[in-house]
Amino acid sequence: QSDRKKLYPFSKAMRLPDLKKDGSVQNELQQGQEVLVQIVKEPISTKGPRLTAELSFAGRYLVLIPFDDKVSVSSKIKSGEERARLKQLIHSIKPKNVGVIVRTVAEGKRVAELDTELKILMKRWEDAILKVQKTQKRPQLIYEETSRVVAMLRDLFNPSYENIYVNDEEVFKEVKHYITLIAPEKAGIVKLYTGTVPIFDNFNVTKQIKSSFGRIVNYKHGAYLYIEHTEALHVVDVNSGNRTRSANGQEANALDVNLGAADELARQLRLRDMGGIIVVDFIDMSLAEDRQILYERMCKNMQKDRARHNILPLSKFGLMQITRQRVRPAMDVNVEEACPTCLGTGKIKSSILFTDQLESKIDKLVNKIGIKTFYLHVHPYVAAYINQGFISMKRRWQMKYGFGVHVVPSQKLAFLQYEFYDSKKQFIDMKEENEAIKN
């Protein structure tokens, strides 16, 4: 209690004038100066985290902003009467020199609920300041957001939730406690999962992850999205696939595929948390009214998205540009691996070129290094190709380089891999032999 008394009341604190946005940071900050900052954006690729000195403490209904005095209401609350009511309530309960943002879920809430949360947020801010006063070490973490699970519930929980299953006892207690605080009548829906089958498998989440995070996302009657992530932007290509054409014609078919793509794309943006610039290549449509229908459908789907976003109408090339708030790198779960034979290119060296390469190695072994007897280990399919025919490739090699040439099929080798062994079954490193030839 004595420490609390040392804090200056916000109502008596002196607010410094706002910094000029067109000024120089060197004029305001000096080397060695201590500054309270908050991370508002995680590091992405080569970019470091983004910091701000405008601190904020988020709750379920309110966001507290120290050193401010404004009251703002979420733009998603459309009723002018409700916006005015919330502003008036917050002005009546908040201290001076403290700003508050009223979140969408606060719509219709009573003053007692808002006042309780405001006091909790004020307590967090005061505790953070106490930690600053006590600590000697710099830099120092003075406040950390609640656990990821609680933060998700804070932002996403709504009365429609019927069950929340948790497979960790500590997290279960944490979730149960939080739900009891914000919605006591819903505390019973939090349940500890104790089944023997992994929780994701039991609720079919694993299958959805595998099907949703690849480059190709199937969504309707054979149509699919092809999603490519780059550092600069995300590219989405809409394909009709093997979908049966509509009896109403190509234009109707294109519109139907595109509308399905708009539905799935809005879901994928939230699921993968794709941010930055997203370019979508829809199937071409000739009618302006169809392009408008698609644009309106995309805008409607994106209304569910809590991230800030902007959608441009389709260009004459059938491209739609979307910008979406990026706070962290896009979620990308690898559900495919590059083929070990073609290394993901989809093509391999032709058999003629490959056997020419093998003969070149054999020629070096026999004529330059002087090894007359050796064993060439190759994939069984390649061995069968070399041995096929009455006058096989192996026979031609033996006639040219001597009967010390032996071909051995090996299951451990990939399709275009090969290894040479001498008569004592010792591995011959062709790279080292090449260096010896050069020297």
How do the strands and helices of this protein lay out in sequence?
Elements (H helix, E strand, L loop, with lengths): L1 H5 L18 H4 L9 E4 L8 E3 L4 E2 L3 E5 L4 E3 L6 H14 L4 E5 L8 H24 L13 H9 L7 E3 L2 H14 L7 E3 L6 H4 L2 H8 L3 E5 L2 E7 L4 E6 L10 H23 L3 E6 L6 H15 L6 E3 L7 E6 L26 H19 L4 E5 L1 H8 L5 H9 L3 E5 L8 E5 L4 E2 L1 H9 L1
Parallel strand pairs: 5-6, 7-8, 11-12, 15-16
Antiparallel strand pairs: 1-2, 3-4, 4-6, 9-10, 10-11, 12-14, 13-14, 15-17, 17-18
Structure overview:
The chain is of the alpha+beta class and about 450 residues long. It has four domains: about 1-20 and about 30-145, Ribosomal Protein S5, domain 2 (2-Layer Sandwich); about 150-195, no CATH class; about 215-325, no CATH class; about 350-439, Hypothetical Protein Ychn, Chain: A (3-Layer(aba) Sandwich). Helices cover about 40% and strands about 20% of the residues. It is built from 14 helices and 18 strands. The chain has a six-stranded mixed beta sheet. The longest helix has 24 residues, at about 110-135. The protein is elongated.
In short:
With 439 residues, this protein is α+β, with helices and mostly antiparallel strands. The protein has 14 helices and 18 strands. The strands form 5 sheets. The protein has a 6-stranded mixed beta sheet with strand order 9-10-11-12-14-13.
**Backbone structural class:** alpha+beta
Round the Cα radius of gyration to an integer and report it: 33 Å
CATH class of the largest domain: Alpha Beta
Give start-end ranges of low-pLDDT stretches: 1-8, 433-439
Report the span from N to C terminus: 82 Å
Which architecture name of the largest domain does CATH use? Answer: 2-Layer Sandwich
